[in-house]
Design a protein that fits this description.
322 residues; alpha/beta; Rossmann fold; 2 domains; seven-stranded mixed β-sheet; globular
């Protein structure tokens, strides 16, 4: 089965580059913006920021617990602090500091998990962040979000900088095309974005998995006459339950897609809510299963686990009994 590829629009960049450019723009007029990194200037695309604003960046080194502690201290003193570190280490090594120093102490740190999911690919399971949604969803007073494209990323950084609430933002490394050019399809934390609508099936995806969901929707329409809704559920917590109920009422089946373990992430959050809401239609969670994750590039890992246009098309046809 051939998958219809949704072409990237000219100018598509990795979300991390958009994060860095937006932060530089904001820091030009706001001296309270401070970046704290754990030897992550290069991988976080922050070398230009450090050159432009050497007094607004703090290098902690490979010490993620100290990173979060220092970021919390700066935030408590009124700084708009962005703590930048690989997602796999930030949300595991420094989990206690995130829980106590940031969330429980209500310090509005902007936790930035970079190279998230399986972005580090061939470096293997030690560098995969397949636990972050599950761990952080269980912590009170913490927004958890994964912007899908350049537009969502820019808006997320601008809004996060203005917030007085702790937040975790997750970014990968690949070029991400714009999901939609509709100027009325805005971004707001806690409100999912409807990218396309169709009554037969809904893909509810987050972060870099929204793109393969769109590819699957295009294939289903072109080759099978199946019209699919595609949702960018960028905010994992708080979940947009209003949109979730709407999608459940309007579509015949739901597939959730995430670059995360099938345990504790977007899929289980949706399933838990929909079961309590009384949703009884076909439902499937697509993510990384509970096993030793294969090693390879991000695309190779996505293809292996069916997080691709072709894989999601197959899952949809199976779910619909086609």
């Amino acid at each position: 089965m051939a998958s219809v590829v949704v072409e990237s629009k000219p100018g598509a960049k990795p979300n991390l580059e958009v994060f860095s450019a937006t932060l530089q723009e904001l820091a030009t007029t706001d001296r309270d913006i401070v970046v704290v990194t754990s030897d992550s200037r290069g991988s976080g695309k922050l070398v230009p920021f450090g050159k432009k604003f050497p007094e607004q960046i703090v290098e902690i080194g490979i010490a993620e617990q100290n990173l979060v502690g220092v970021a919390a201290g700066l935030a408590s003193a009124g700084k708009k602090t962005f703590a930048v570190s690989p997602a796999c280490f930030l949300t595991a090594r420094a989990l206690e500091q995130i829980k106590n120093d940031v969330a429980y102490s209500d310090n509005p740190v902007k936790l930035i998990g970079i190279s998230a999911g399986v972005s580090y690919g061939a470096l293997g399971s030690t560098h995969h962040s397949l636990h972050d949604f599950a761990a952080l969803r269980a912590i009170n007073n913490l927004i958890v979000a994964a912007p899908a494209d350049n537009f969502e990323t820019e808006e997320a950084i601008r809004q996060a900088a203005a917030m007085t609430h702790p937040i975790y933002l997750r970014f990968g490394k690949k070029n991400m095309p714009l999901l939609t050019t509709d100027p009325n399809n805005g971004f707001r934390f806690g409100k999912g974005r409807v990218i396309s609508r169709g009554p037969d099936l809904a893909f509810i995806a987050t972060g870099e998995t929204v793109q393969p969901a769109l590819e699957a929707a295009a294939t289903l329409r072109a080759e099978h006459g199946i019209e699919a809704t595609v949702i960018s559920m960028h905010t994992i917590k708080p979940l947009d339950t209003t949109l979730l109920r709407e999608v459940a009422a309007e579509t015949a089946a739901i597939i959730t897609v995430e670059e995360h373990s099938v345990y504790g992430g977007l899929g289980e959050a949706c399933a838990s809510y929909l079961l309590q809401y009384g949703y009884g239609k076909p439902f499937r969670i697509v993510g990384i299963p509970d096993e030793y994750t294969v090693t390879g590039s991000q695309n190779e890992i996505f293809n292996h686990y069916g997080i691709s246009g072709e894989g999601l098309t197959t899952t949809a046809l199976d779910l619909l009994g086609k």
